[in-house]
Write a structure and sequence with these properties.
The structure is a homodimer of 349-residue chains.
Chain A lengths: L1 H29 L10 H14 L13 E4 L13 H16 L9 H8 L11 H12 L4 H14 L15 H12 L3 E9 H12 L6 E12 L5 E11 L5 H9 L6 E4 L5 H8 L6 E6 L25 H9 L3 E4 H4 L12
Parallel strand pairs in A: 1-2, 1-5, 2-3, 5-6, 6-7
Antiparallel strand pairs in A: 3-4
Helix pairs in contact in A: 3-4, 3-5, 6-8, 9-10
């Protein structure tokens, strides 16, 4: 009797344990790596793509080494409106330039930038593209790569977006962070392929996206190797453009820096069109996705595709929208596909 | 008695098992990852560097993500004499060019190359640097990146070195293959940083060295994105040079393609000087090594450092030798430091 009771308890214990394990398995299976996505064709396309490329019995299986996924940054991984963060950086570096060379205070376009920073918000409208190029050259070149990195790091630690009053590096899209993690957990190597400055984005890419500097492809200038007055080797940033990583420059940059065709590519504007075409031209399963900013309330609304307001920053034309629909690319609606936009605010240190 | 016998047997079994485990541990510890290296300062420097950078209690500990090691290819990882393999490739592509455009048969420098390939070995001496550049442009540009990759792959599968009658990809240095594996096993990311063509080396780097295409930095030209007659996106190789990855171009290329300073750098010629200086200028433990070809019997002997014969291919000057000695770089003597030069020949398929 004692034996049989003990045995029965043992069987019950086993059952409970196995039920527990079952419950745990079920929990693991239902834990959603894309929990900030609403159910729908966009979320489904990502899950289907990962299944097709990682299941070794799938006809579209891709060996781990070849699993490359590329992501535009501005407007795809983080906020780009009303102005690219790097443009803000360049403008906010101007006072330091003027301090070093006081005569610049009366020279355009620096004079206009100083007015803008002093509160004359309309002054910015006066700046032409050549003006902005002059400012970019003055603030992004001429220093050593180490000094530039230190300057960007310092700026990023204190600069804040005007609308959300949060650091730019906290204004990444939570659903896209989940895609990055989900792809990496499935053996994909994730790359940023940005029209922004390669050296600029590399400063914060690891901490912000878990993407190491060597996996950032961006607009890049040359450097010159020389020695400082102590004979120490230095690399100085040149004004010479090597790669304009926008439009056709994106697949060209991918070939230069990665050397393989991506299986997945994510963008949000006409500057990403050729990258998505190039990814899509390969064999097997290819994931091509575009973020459409149609959420004025939680973020911004701009196109001009689908009747959204026109913009010069991150333009998504109707032509691009039509190409996407025709070629089976997936357009992500921020408004409908994303449950949340940003990660929770970090506690103050 | 039975009990005590069983217990004794159990104790003996445990002892045997633990001895067995001990023996296995000892085997694992004494299995030498650098078994093709003779004991000496070169081998010791590699082992000491790995210990210093990977032991978390070491003041020179480097976190895994930052563990970057760069290797020149020609003369450092594989044979470069009497002629770089890529130059042989370019020369051997000329008949295909002439077949496509028969008028080239009477145009220099192609005429001279055709004579050389027909057996007039002295003809090659007539080619000037501009001639070689013309041949390189004709054989390395103008085709799609996919066609180029297929051509190099095909050539590599059949081309053989004249002295050893083995494929070029088998004439890698076994001791350096061991260094690559040893560093990777210790969390280092290994890169090739070569004066050779980036697209050329990327074709065979994974299979030959376990280094994926995206970890090959080399001399690189631009590409142009367009569409073929079926509307399929293509990338065509341009004659425009973007990066001359030699001398100062090596640290510049490392910054462009990797964006971090290497902790270890390996080379064999004046073209590697700046890469080693750049690696050495960082903080903490830095490994800087140069292979000296002083083994005429098993491979080749050339310098002109240390009275070795002079050469135009992989020049190691006395000045470089003196800088190495002055700055604590390690010069590897092929003759004295390496037990074997090449991996065993692969069995015919």
């Amino acid at each position: 009797m004692l034996y049989s009771l003990t045995r029965r308890m043992f069987v019950i214990a086993l059952l409970v344990a196995s039920l527990g394990a079952g419950a745990e398995c079920a929990r693991a299976e239902t834990s959603d790596p894309l929990s900030s996505w609403n159910d729908g064709p966009a979320k489904q396309a990502i899950v289907d793509f990962v299944k097709a490329t990682t299941d070794s019995s799938s006809p579209n299986f891709v060996p781990p080494g070849a699993r490359i996924a590329t992501f535009d940054q501005d407007g795809t991984l983080w906020v780009e409106h009303p102005m690219y963060s790097q443009v803000v950086y360049c403008l906010e570096r101007v006072p330091a330039l003027v301090k070093a060379k006081p005569e610049l205070a009366n020279v355009e376009p620096f004079k206009t930038v100083m007015s803008f920073l002093s509160g004359d918000r309309a002054a910015i409208e006066k700046l032409s593209t050549p003006d902005l190029e002059k400012i970019a050259t003055a603030t992004l070149t001429g220093m050593t790569v180490d000094d530039f990195e230190a300057e960007v790091e310092k700026w990023m630690a204190s600069a804040k977006d005007g609308r959300w009053k949060r650091p730019y590096t906290e204004l990444t899209y939570q659903p896209m962070q989940e895609v990055l993690s989900y792809l990496r957990a499935n053996g994909f190597k994730t790359y940023i392929v940005t029209g922004g400055g390669q050296d600029f984005v590399r400063v914060y890419s690891e901490q912000t996206y878990g993407i190491p500097p060597e996996q950032v492809v961006g607009t890049a200038g040359g450097t010159t190797y020389s020695y400082d007055q102590n004979g120490k080797p230095i690399l100085t940033k040149d004004p010479k453009l090597l790669l304009n990583d926008n439009f056709a420059g994106k697949p060209e940059g991918i070939h230069l820096m990665i050397g393989r065709r991506p299986y997945a590519a994510f963008g949000n504007s006409t500057g990403d069109q050729q990258m998505l075409e190039y990814a899509g031209a390969g064999d097997g399963a290819r994931l091509k996705m575009l973020v459409l900013h149609d959420d004025a309330e939680r973020e911004y609304a701009y196109g001009p595709a689908e009747g959204l307001p026109d913009t010069k920053v991150g333009t998504f034309t109707q032509e691009l929208y039509d190409e996407a629909k025709k070629d089976g690319w997936i357009v992500i609606s921020m408004k409908n596909d994303w449950k949340t936009i940003f990660p929770p605010a970090k506690a103050a240190p």
